């Protein structure tokens, strides 16, 4: 018997013990630790939502079950639904405090920093691979993950991206600059950088102003070019990202003459410092507390990451909205007033009534034909491909997958997941658009390799373990539901599926559990955040 | 459930998710197209990814310095020559027209591909739909049970639905010798049926007090459409073993040849747009060798496709377009390659009621001057759209930003259209 076999057996025995423990309902609740105060009384934000909906008279959804909120949190923060192990731990906390306790725990979890870094990187450096050699995506994402894990203030993170100098390998923040590297002129592209800064940090799509003035937009072409000029002297060569002579010289459309453009702040120039490189001055101006756009754009983005839909759509275009929703401005004010603390912002969002309300409709009345949520209930949103893949992996494994889990499980998770994500179809940068799913996605879920392999009769996979280890049919069905949908079956569902298992053993029982897993994985409920 | 949705039904479904930006005008036009039977109904795009050299394909300049030794051959149309290697296509020249003066502002593969496929330059504020997606969106559904937009041997940047929605993305398949992925249920039939019927139990629980919201996700409709596709006899369109060996041989025993044959079979069952990719044209090194190899695959497949469509009376209903994201430089570089060139390159168009045996524009035999009658990509798009009975100036509203966007910003090339 080789070492591999021993390891295998060890894992098998360990897994079985854990599963046996997980299958039993929790017994005595843990003592309540010192409650961690919610940073700000979220009541004001709740009242703002009530006003936004049109007052108290408008019915809204009742509070959601704690497990339903747990699923949302887990999907938003780790990119997968919670594992059975996590659900058991969650339920061992005292009722009414579970969400806050699990949130505190999660916010210190490395998986959360990594996943948030992945999501935010799409905003900062896009989804494409970028220029070979000069752009190191992995370095950038892991730098961002470190920064989030250390709870570095968000303004500091953004300042580093805009203004950092050095090699993209040693100073990973500079990849924000080098991803726009244009091989033809051999320097980063000031206009792409201006567009990126405006969208990602100021909540304005000013790209249209690149070519001409738009009659209804506040941004003019001179604003765009003035912003681009802050990046006009940046170079990226073997000495790294650094400033040289300014040479941003766009061609005037009318005169066809290339003219050197000076850096110019589009508004509020008085809040900018006068010292430092152009990029340093821009960075300070962007993150200044008096520049309200920065906190608002960020808050809208973080809200969208947590909830699945932004408060203002599109997520990066607040500039075109006449009047911003009051809850957004309140949340943003709190974010800015407290040192751009991302964790505090997330806590505040999670503390709102809307985050904790059910996704059901208050009545079977007309639902809005608009694509935007009504904010009377928690909105339904389509899961991203990696969230679907992550949830398939997590739901078919009894233990929690992540940095601490067995390396082999992680490796398969990483490789298999990427292929699945590609096939499922990435939505690109513009991800909060409320679209439905596609036929290839359904084919992939029903007949694809990943689902087939994860639910088949194999030792590590949950269907098999549940079939072998659950003491009775009721618990077997319940565990499958908890693992896949993070809820218990309704009485109808329980009766139906317990009937399927009744009197079966061994082979047939395993098949029936595999079938149950297939069914749950293919339900609407699994592929949508709700 | 019979899922052959009518156009109006589809509009209603789409409207439910808040994307109700289709207008009745386009549906009416589409309905006329369907009944009239005069206009083209499908597009086959032979996508030459990487940027083929016009000089080694549709626009040879033999015995000039820029030819670099490439010879030309006569075709069945007097006065039109093709590069050597297109002997079979030369016989079909009466059905095919060439545009030799395409000019594009994009010299990058990704941006150029986007422009060629959508008719618009990349724009960070909106993702434009490719021409195949536009046709699927605007033209009637008919009785097609399989996706109406298909990409065979997909390249790096397949045709997308853009702002029309992911449901208009091209359905991607590989070499048609293999099985289609994910088309066969993973459980034996009796268990598969149980799984499906059990799904209703779970769906019922979720829909409780959120029925309309759940309906608006279109999850079940999409799943049903996937099931219909799995069971559809139309999937046989992918099964080339049903074709006589002689036909297979005509198209060439290559993945691209098989792709072209599958494309013909697919449009026969009502697919609106098939994109078949032949990649590898990015000949910065040893241009002539690269082209010799690829032309030997393109020539039989393209020629057989045109001949086969004509033989079956399908050519008038099908626009065949062939080209890549740009052309290649007249100057040959030190590695014997040609670099990117977007100022005067070629496209071939056939069928769909378009005139054959025409040439639009000409390039300078010395490779210095701008081409005569420079032709924009958007004008080619407008021409193809008109051939399938669509009004290029018709606008769809991009969701979120609310911008009206024309099917094509170009103007049809009148000399290509039979009036």
Features:
heterodimer; A: 530 residues; mainly alpha; two-stranded antiparallel sheet; 24 helices; 6 strands; B: 419 residues; alpha/beta; 12 helices; 15 strands; disordered N terminus
Summarize the structure.
The complex is a heterodimer of chains A (530) and B (419). With 530 residues, chain A is mainly alpha-helical.
Structural class, from secondary structure content of chain B?
alpha/beta
The helix content of chain A, as a percent range, equals 40-55%
Inertia-based shape of chain A: globular
Helices of chain A, by number, come to 24
Alpha-beta content class of chain A: mainly alpha
Number of strands of chain A: 6
- Please write the string of helix (H) and strand (E) elements of chain A: HHHHHHHHHEEHHEEHHHHEHHHHHHHHHE
Radius of gyration of chain A, CA atoms, in whole angstroms: 25 Å
Q: What's the story with the biggest beta sheet of chain A?
A: 2 strands, antiparallel
Instruction: Please write the string of helix (H) and strand (E) elements of chain B.
Output: HHEEEHEHHEEHHHHHEHEEEEEEHEE
Oligomeric form of this entry? Answer: heterodimer
Strand content of chain B: 5-15%
Number of strands of chain B: 15
Distance between the termini of chain A: 48 Å
Task: Look at the structure and give the mean pLDDT of chain B.
Answer: 88
CATH superfamily of the largest domain in chain B: Alkaline Phosphatase, subunit A
Largest interface comes to:
A-B, 65 and 57 residues
Rg of chain B, Cα atoms, Å: 22 Å
How many domains would you count in the coordinates of chain B?
2
Q: Could you walk me through the main structural features you see in this protein, from its secondary elements to its overall organization?
A:
The complex is a heterodimer of chains A (530) and B (419). Chain A has 530 residues and is mostly helical. Among the domains of chain A are: 3-27 and 380-529, no CATH class; 124-287, no CATH class. Chain A contains 24 helices and six strands. In chain A, α6 (110-125) packs across α7 (137-149). Chain B has 419 residues and is of the alpha/beta class. Chain B has two domains: 7-181 and 235-416, Alkaline Phosphatase, subunit A, CATH 3.40.720.10; 192-231, no CATH class. Chain B has twelve helices and 15 strands. Chain B has helices at residues 7-16, 24-36, 87-91, 109-118, 131-138, 189-207, 211-216, 219-231, 245-251, 255-268, 287-311, 377-387, and strands at residues 42-47, 72-74, 81-83, 96-103, 149-152, 171-173, 273-277, 318-323, 327-328, 340-341, 343-351, 359-360, 375-376, 395-397, 404-406. The longest helix of chain B has 25 residues, at 287-311. Chain B is globular. Classes of the chains: A mainly alpha (530), B alpha/beta (419). At the A-B interface, α18, α22, α23 and α24 of A face α6, α7 and α8 of B.
């Amino acid at each position: 018997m080789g070492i591999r076999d021993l390891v295998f057996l060890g894992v098998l025995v360990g897994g079985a013990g854990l599963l046996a423990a997980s299958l039993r309902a929790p017994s005595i609740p843990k003592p309540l630790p010192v409650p961690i105060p919610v940073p700000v009384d979220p009541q004001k934000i709740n009242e703002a939502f009530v006003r936004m909906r049109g007052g108290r008279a408008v019915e809204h959804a009742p509070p959601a079950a704690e497990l339903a909120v747990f699923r949302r949190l887990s999907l938003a923060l780790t990119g997968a639904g919670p594992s059975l192990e996590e659900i058991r731990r969650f339920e061992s906390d005292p009722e009414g405090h579970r969400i806050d306790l699990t949130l505190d725990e999660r916010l210190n979890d490395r998986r959360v920093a990594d996943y948030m870094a992945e999501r935010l990187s799409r905003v900062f450096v896009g989804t494409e691979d970028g220029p070979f050699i000069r752009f190191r995506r992995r370095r950038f994402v892991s730098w961002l993950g470190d920064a989030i894990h250390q709870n570095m203030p968000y303004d500091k993170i953004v300042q580093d991206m805009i203004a950092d100098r050095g090699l993209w390998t040693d100073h990973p923040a500079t990849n924000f600059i080098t991803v726009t590297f244009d091989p033809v002129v051999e320097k980063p592209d000031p206009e792409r950088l201006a567009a990126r800064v405006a969208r990602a940090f100021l909540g304005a799509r000013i790209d249209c102003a690149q070519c001409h003035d738009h009659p209804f937009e506040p941004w003019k072409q001179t604003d765009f070019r003035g912003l681009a000029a802050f990046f006009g002297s940046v170079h990226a060569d073997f000495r790294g990202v650094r400033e040289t002579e300014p040479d941003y010289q766009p061609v005037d459309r009318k005169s066809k003459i290339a003219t050197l453009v000076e850096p110019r702040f589009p508004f509020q120039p008085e809040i900018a410092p006068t010292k430092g490189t152009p990029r340093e001055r821009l960075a300070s101006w962007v993150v200044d507390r008096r520049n309200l756009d920065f906190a608002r754009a960020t808050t809208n983005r973080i809200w969208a990451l947590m909830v699945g839909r932004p408060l203002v759509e599109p997520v990066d275009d607040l500039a075109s909205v006449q009047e911003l929703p009051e809850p957004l401005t309140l949340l943003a004010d709190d974010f800015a007033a407290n040192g751009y603390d991302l964790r505090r912002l997330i806590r505040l969002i999670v503390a709102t009534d809307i985050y904790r309300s059910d996704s059901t409709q208050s009545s079977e009345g007309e639902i809005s034909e608009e694509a935007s949520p009504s904010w009377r209930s928690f909105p339904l949103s389509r899961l991203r491909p990696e969230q679907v893949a992550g949830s398939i992996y997590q739901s078919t494994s009894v233990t929690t997958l992540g940095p601490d889990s067995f390396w082999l499980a992680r490796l398969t998770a990483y490789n298999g997941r990427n292929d699945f994500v590609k096939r499922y179809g990435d939505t690109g940068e513009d991800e909060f658009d409320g679209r439905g799913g596609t036929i290839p996605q359904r084919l992939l879920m029903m007949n694809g390799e990943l689902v087939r392999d994860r639910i088949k009769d194999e030792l590590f996979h949950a269907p098999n373990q549940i079939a072998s280890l659950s003491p009775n049919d009721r618990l077997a069905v319940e565990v499958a539901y908890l693992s896949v949908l993070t809820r218990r079956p309704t009485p109808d569902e329980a009766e139906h599926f317990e009937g399927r298992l009744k009197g079966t053993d061994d082979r047939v029982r395993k098949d029936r559990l595999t079938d149950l897993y297939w069914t749950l994985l293919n339900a609407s409920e699994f592929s949508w955040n709700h | 459930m019979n899922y052959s949705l009518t156009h109006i039904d589809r509009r209603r479904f789409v409207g439910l998710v808040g994307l109700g930006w289709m207008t009745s005008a386009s549906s009416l036009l589409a309905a006329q197209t369907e009944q009239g039977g005069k206009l083209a109904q499908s597009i086959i795009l032979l996508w030459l990814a990487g940027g083929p050299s016009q000089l080694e394909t549709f626009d040879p300049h033999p015995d000039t310095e820029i030819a670099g030794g490439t010879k030309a051959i006569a075709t069945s149309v007097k006065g039109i020559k093709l590069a050597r290697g297109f002997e079979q296509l030369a016989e079909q020249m009466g059905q095919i027209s060439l545009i030799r003066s395409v000019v594009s502002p994009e010299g990058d593969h990704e941006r150029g591909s986007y422009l060629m496929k959508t008719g618009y330059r990349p724009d960070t504020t909106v993702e434009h739909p490719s021409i195949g997606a536009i046709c699927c969106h605007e033209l009637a559904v008919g009785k097609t049970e399989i996706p109406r937009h298909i990409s065979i041997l997909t390249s790096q940047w397949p045709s997308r639905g853009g702002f029309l929605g992911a449901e208009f993305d091209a359905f991607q398949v590989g070499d048609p010798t293999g099985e289609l992925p994910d088309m066969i249920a993973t459980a034996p039939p009796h268990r598969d049926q149980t799984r499906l019927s059990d799904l209703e139990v779970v769906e019922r629980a979720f829909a409780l007090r959120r029925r309309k919201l759940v309906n608006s996700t279109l999850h079940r409709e999409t799943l049903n459409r996937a099931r219909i596709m799995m069971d559809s006899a139309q999937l046989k369109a992918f099964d080339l073993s049903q074709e006589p060996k002689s036909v297979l041989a005509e198209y060439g025993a290559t993945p691209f040849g098989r792709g072209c044959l599958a494309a013909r079979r697919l449009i026969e069952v009502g697919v609106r747009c098939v994109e078949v990719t032949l990649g590898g044209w990015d000949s910065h090194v040893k241009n002539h060798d690269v082209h010799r190899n690829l032309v030997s695959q393109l020539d039989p497949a393209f020629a057989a496709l045109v001949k086969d469509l004509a033989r079956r009376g399908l050519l008038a209903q099908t626009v065949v377009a062939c080209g890549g994201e740009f052309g290649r430089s007249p100057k040959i570089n030190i590695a014997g390659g040609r670099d990117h060139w977007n100022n005067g390159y070629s496209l071939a168009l056939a069928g769909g009621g378009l005139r054959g045996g025409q040439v639009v524009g000409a390039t300078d035999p010395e490779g210095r001057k701008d081409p005569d009658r420079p032709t924009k990509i958007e004008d080619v798009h407008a021409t193809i759209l008109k051939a399938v009975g669509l009004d290029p100036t018709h606008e769809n509203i991009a969701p979120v930003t609310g911008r009206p966007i024309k099917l094509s910003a170009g103007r049809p090339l009148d000399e290509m259209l039979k009036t």
